[in-house]
Specification:
- By secondary structure, the chain is of the alpha+beta class.
- The chain has two helices and three strands.
- A hairpin with a 7-residue loop joins strand 2 and strand 3.
- The termini are far apart.
Length: 79
């Protein structure tokens, strides 16, 4: 699906196409980073206040919280 006049409209068309693909790639990467929850068998994922409270209740607050960095919006609690 190319524009009819590639000499005048081609650069804008492909610029928009690259921007759209970049946004989709960033969204996909963000979802994958947020889904580290899938790999946390021994840990309790915490993404909300309710999950925080439930994690602490699991062992009376004796466990430890871990973070995978500022780009992953989830804490992990190891009881």
């Amino acid at each position: 699906f190319h524009p009819h006049d590639l000499d005048h409209d081609g650069e804008a068309h492909f610029g928009k196409l690259i921007a759209k693909e970049s946004a989709v790639t960033e969204l996909t990467a963000a979802r994958l980073m947020g889904n580290y929850i899938l790999f946390s068998d021994a840990y309790i994922p915490v993404q909300s206040g309710a999950a925080f409270y439930k994690a602490i209740q699991s062992d009376g607050g004796k466990g430890v919280f871990y973070s995978l960095g500022s780009d992953v919006h989830c804490l992990f609690y190891k009881p």
